[in-house]
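Researcher: Please translate sequence to structure tokens.
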Amino acid sequence: MEKKMRIMTERPLNAETPIPSLRSWITANAVFFDRNQSEIPSDKISLEEWRLGIDGEVEQPIEITFDQILRMPKAIVSNTLECSGNGRSLLAEKASGNPWTIGGVGNAVFGGVWLKDILDMAQPGRKTKHVAFEGLDKPLGSAGVKFIRSIPFEKAMSSSLLVYEMNGEPLPLKHGYPLRALALGWTGANCVKWLQRITLLDRPYEGFFMDKVYRVYQKGDAPESGNVVTALKLKSIITQPLPDETLPAGPVTILGAAYGGEDGIGAVDVSVDGGRNWKPAEFIGPHEPFAWRQWQFVWHVVKEGAYRIMARATDGKGRQQPMNAFWNVLGYGNNGVQEHAINVQIGSSGASAAF
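Model: Translation complete:
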């Protein structure tokens, strides 16, 4: 039976992927999470009329047609994309924003061109330090603030794409058709949709969506004093069983996904006793640099009762996922093991649980 998206707001559309749909290495376009600050365009723009402008700190401002982009060398990259506030509602202390659980994340195979190849056509100037992206979407609200974000020039030139395909199909309208910026291994806030303009700057772009939100700060601090949200945090999520599920005794297959942005995943360990003991999980499925690792652990349990299951990831550099999340006003980057633990009930009697 097809699972429905959990809609948090309809205008703008914000909805998370149902947990069963996170058990696949590829997250289907139809259930890929939706995160928007503006209104989704009502119709697809004509590809014949669409242009991508590149200006600012460049030697040669240019406009590029969609046909020109299609004729450039193609890149195909798998990438895990996550909302900056994913897991916000799991924090013990309330934080502002949409109440994401674990469904504000997904993994897709994107097709497009390297951003470097596009920027080189405009000949970036020596003062260039940042790259700002502007989409076709129209702001909601009377203030009329456009969603414009910038990333460092180094990130733009090293591991960022402009994508026009998602999971082998043209980029869906709600995910940025016809073109979306994609900073590999970084949160969705850095990946502007419905792209129409790129501006090279000698400093970070100054505006509401750079200075007032997508910053990690504490109560009493000015938002602009906090660090900008960039790379994905090291995290492991449990996708099977579901929280508070009742299960029969016997072998229980625990499934999950782990991701670490630019640093990848080296290992995942599982505990079924609240963190007292840990055992290694087994990786399943493909292994790609910016994509999550799907994992499984078969737990042989014969004793009825309540259990608390945890998963803890280790990245490619040997750093472990923290046991507790770092709280901040807007609840960004919740990657605590404790916050992502789930409780289950084993409903059959028996002598003991083997772990």
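Researcher: Any highlights?
Model: The two ends are 33 Å apart (CA to CA).
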